[in-house]
Every structure is written in C-alpha cells, then in structure tokens.
C-alpha cells in the first residue's frame, strides 16, 4: 500500500511541472509526512482544462452514508479498481495525478520491527501518482472532494522492501489518464504498471516518520 508520502513544494511548482493552472483558495502547509485524511494537491481535468486543486486523501464515493469511509479508501488496487463499487465510477470518469516528492514504505526486518524507506525519482522531479477523485455531499450540504492513490505490484527496487507500490505514470501517459472523455477500461488498465526501477532511488530513514506528528524535512534524511 501507500500510506505516507511527501508534498513539500510550493503548489505553483507542481502546477508548472504538470502543465496545470492553480485552482486553490489557499496553499496547503508543506508536508514531509502526508497521512490519510490530510488535504493534498492533485491534478484533474475540468471542462478541458488541467487544474491543480486540494483534495482530501481517502476517497468517499458519492453513495457513501458517512465520510468516515474515506479513511479506508486511501488506496485502490490496480487489479480491481475497474470493478470495485467504490472506485469503478471514478476510474472511468474522474482520474487524477497526485504529485509526490517521494513516498514511504516499511521493510519488515528479520530481527523484528519495520524499517521505513524513502523512495523518489532519481532526477528529483515529482512523481505522478495515478489517482482517482470523487465528490461527496451529506444531507447538511457539506461537500468534500476526495482522492485515492492506485497501487500495483512493485518494481525491482521496491520489491525487497514492500509487496505494493503506487502506480507512477510517465509524462506521455498524463493526457490520456486525465481525459475524462476517455473511458476505455482495458487501455486504462494497461497503463497502470510500476515505474522502471532505474528511474527511482531510495534510502532508509528514521522511524520519526512513524508518527504523524513528526512532520519536517528530517523525515526524509538518509539514516546514518
């Protein structure tokens, strides 16, 4: 799964990288330890325009009775996202890209415990995590726009650490992925693969990241 990631850049930098316009009432606080139900940046298409906005991490399907269900929907599996009731409508109509400076995965150690690793693009550019979004409203009129990160089997770099990783889309796939008028499920399923391990790097980090309250740049510092 993908349970923590980093979004610490200025939103204008993400918008420029993804060729999007800003659609924000205010910027989010930089985060080196994004956790489920936090507000995050995501890029989606609206009436033909590519926009970067703020979404709650943890998808709340339109038919949900309670927004709390979103905490269980921070990830969607690439193998079943097209058929799961909570995700299938968004998969066809509401796809997004979630910028991430990097993400964390935890390696289970033979001696016990888990060691966190920070994984990122070798060239330093943001990862384009494949995501879905949804809009939900309750009976009192509260409206929440939420998102989820799609995960897949790991590449050779991630596999020794964890058995899942986010789907990371390369730039040549962004336009089709964001196109809300494109709904060919089989083509979309073929797009959801793991990023080439040669494009990525990783290093172990401190268990500081295990606590959501620890949210500063030291979280991504290499373990010494």
CATH architecture: Alpha-Beta Complex
Beta strand % = 25-35%
Termini separation: 26 Å
Count the DSSP helices: 4
Under CATH at level 1, the class stands as Alpha Beta
- Number of beta-strand segments: 13
Would you tell me which CATH topology applies?
hypothetical protein yedk fold
Question: pLDDT average, as an integer?
Answer: 95
**Computed Rg:** 17 Å
* Uncertain spans: none
Shape: globular
What string, H for helix and E for strand, traces the elements in order? EHEEEEEHEEEEEEHHE
User: What is the total number of structural domains?
Assistant: 1
* CATH superfamily annotation: SOS response associated peptidase-like
Largest sheet: 8 strands, mixed
Structural class: mainly beta
Q: What proportion of the residues is helical, as a percent range?
A: 10-25%
Describe it:
The protein is mostly beta strands. The chain is built from 4 helices and 13 strands. The protein has a single domain, classed as SOS response associated peptidase-like (hypothetical protein yedk fold). It has helices spanning 11-17, 88-93, 171-178, 185-191, and strands spanning 5-7, 21-22, 31-34, 39-46, 49-57, 75-77, 95-100, 102-108, 114-121, 127-137, 143-152, 165-166, 200-204. It is globular and about 50 Å long. The model has no long low-confidence stretch (mean pLDDT 95).
């Amino acid at each position: 799964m993908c349970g923590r990631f980093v979004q610490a850049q200025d939103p204008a930098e993400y918008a420029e990288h993804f060729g999007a316009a800003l659609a924000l009432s205010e910027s989010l606080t930089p985060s080196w330890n994004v956790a489920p139900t936090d507000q995050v940046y995501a890029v989606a298409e609206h009436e033909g325009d590519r926009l970067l906005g703020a979404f709650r991490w943890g998808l709340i399907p339109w038919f949900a009775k309670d927004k709390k269900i979103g905490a269980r929907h921070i990830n969607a599996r690439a193998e079943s996202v097209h058929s799961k009731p909570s995700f299938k409508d968004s998969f066809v109509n509401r796809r997004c890209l979630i910028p991430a400076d990097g993400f964390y995965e935890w390696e289970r150690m033979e001696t016990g415990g888990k060691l966190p690793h920070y994984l990122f693009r070798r060239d330093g550019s943001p990862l384009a995590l494949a995501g879905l979004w949804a809009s939900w409203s309750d009976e009192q009129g509260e409206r929440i726009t939420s998102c989820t990160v799609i995960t897949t089997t790991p590449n050779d770099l991630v596999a020794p650490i964890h058995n899942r990783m986010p789907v990371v889309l390369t730039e040549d796939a962004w336009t089709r992925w964001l196109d809300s008028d494109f709904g060919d499920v089989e083509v979309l399923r073929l797009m959801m693969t793991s990023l080439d391990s040669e494009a990525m790097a990783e290093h172990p980090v401190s268990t500081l990241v295990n606590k959501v309250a620890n949210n500063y740049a030291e979280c991504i510092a290499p373990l010494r």
